[in-house]
Q: What sequence folds into this?
């Protein structure tokens, strides 16, 4: 006898396994998971660079709402969403993986001829190839192929088959055309500055900003990966252009993130993604 799990039960099981999850409406769209955003009142899908397009105290929908916290998943604010959920989604980047979404048979054939074998999940139109490791997400990197990892969500279908391989360079290379690729950002020198005049009158201003960033990460109760990224983005937007940030400052932020369960690789990816977003 086969027992079909409800979306909430599936979400709780995935969360217990460390996979951040969220409910999806019909059409694979996220819910607004707070009273202000009920029935999509705030405009729907969050901006993919700034979590949440509403004024909620915390991200309420989209990839930024994905969580492993059973108290959040079972909270009254999420109750209506789970009761009407058509399926469950997860945040691949938060789970430490990258999904190569192959949307048609031609894309699947290309992957089988080009990419190393890894865990495979059948979809309604093609396959998800799942690799261990994270990278920036991007749509239409090739015809019928999307990359879903950081700042994106993917529909949970099942555990798939096959052993999961490490994220290969062949997948990373899909993100940008060859002429636009650049070397990975070195964290030994997190920013070189842009030669501008430093607007910080005293070191205290910068130290206070780092302290606030550490506090924000430390106090996060859910969506930790999204909180880390937003904190890095905020710090870099204020202090990233004049060369004031040092290894010691970045280490404080990374240490706080890793104390919340983030891996060193997740921290590096979030930092690099923030640099790219700000054009640094």
A:
């Amino acid at each position: 006898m086969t027992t079909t799990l409800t979306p909430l039960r599936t979400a709780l099981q995935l969360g217990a396994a460390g996979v951040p999850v969220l409910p999806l409406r019909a059409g694979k769209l996220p819910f607004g998971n707070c009273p202000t955003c009920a029935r999509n009142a705030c405009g729907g899908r969050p901006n993919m660079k700034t979590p949440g397009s509403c004024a909620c105290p915390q991200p309420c929908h989209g990839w930024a709402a994905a969580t492993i916290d059973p108290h959040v998943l079972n909270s009254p604010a999420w109750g209506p969403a789970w009761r009407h959920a058509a399926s469950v989604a997860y945040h691949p980047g938060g789970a430490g993986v990258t999904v190569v979404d192959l949307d048609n048979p031609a894309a699947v054939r290309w992957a089988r001829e080009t990419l190393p074998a890894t865990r495979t999940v059948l979809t309604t139109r093609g396959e998800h190839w799942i690799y261990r490791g994270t990278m920036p997400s991007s749509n239409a990197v090739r015809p019928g192929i999307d990359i879903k990892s950081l700042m994106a969500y993917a529909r949970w279908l099942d555990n798939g088959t096959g052993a999961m391989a490490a994220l290969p360079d062949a997948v990373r290379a899909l993100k940008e055309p060859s002429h636009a690729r650049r070397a990975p950002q070195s964290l030994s020198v997190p920013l070189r500055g842009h030669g501008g005049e430093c607007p910080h009158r005293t070191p205290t201003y910068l130290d206070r900003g780092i302290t606030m960033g550490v506090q924000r990460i430390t106090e996060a109760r859910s969506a930790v990966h999204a909180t880390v990224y937003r904190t890095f983005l905020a710090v870099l937007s204020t202090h990233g252009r004049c060369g004031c940030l040092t290894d010691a400052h970045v280490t404080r932020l990374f240490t706080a993130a890793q104390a919340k369960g983030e891996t060193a690789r997740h921290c590096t990816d979030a930092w690099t993604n923030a640099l790219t977003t700000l054009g640094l």
About this structure: The longest strand covers residues 97-102. Residues 45-53, 177-196 have pLDDT under 50 and may be disordered.
